[in-house]
Known about the structure:
42% helix, alpha/beta
Amino acid sequence: MIKYVFIQNDPFFLPKVLDKYLREFADSTAGINIQGVNQGKRSVLQTAFDLYRVYGFRYFQWKVRRYAWFKLRAKLAELTGSTRQPYSVRSVARKYSVPVTESVNVNDEAFLAHLRSLDVELIVSISGTQLYRKKLRRQTPAGIINCHGALLPKYRGLMPSFWTLLNGETEGGISVHFVDRKLDSGPIVVQRRYRIHPHDTLEDIMARSKDLGAECLIEAVQRIEAGDPELLENEESQATSFSMPTPEDGKRFRASGRRFR
């Protein structure tokens, strides 16, 4: 089954997720589309500003310094041709010789034609930041699956790790689901849980979520390739949805005793 990966251009956790995925499926992956780190319809700059207001100065500047350091290491690896460490999504793609597209609208006709020319049967979305519209879904025979960092149908939408911690949940999870016309509402292929401890930070939860997400994606693809996977209902009546946190939500997060890192 020919696959194509949609993935966010995040340097912190996603290169390792992609590395695990491509160890299993590089030979049947026709390409990787790298999408921006902006949330929803926001620009990258607006996303950064909104996150600054939520995170506060200390955590935000720490993330910015780490981002710069990861980008520098990725650039040095690119210059030297090193593929030993997964410093960026692009470097992981190069390691497995998988072609990359970047900064394109995946719903544009030119990109749809690109996918058709490769006979893409299944699209795997790893923290993708674009909406996948009807024409794209219809031309993908095996469908589009997305990895979401929560136990759907709860916590649909943006930044599920943040909301899971803020709301005092004692467990989190990963749901790999088919994409349909509504956000995070398609039937679930694989779902797994993990415990949340009182001392866990947002960084802890995001790392655990992404690591488990890689395992769930691999299992989901294997089930789809085997044919007719048993699906879990993503019940609309049980759904909760969340958007970008506000500065007040950030204050409540800190007041609850939770830490960002």
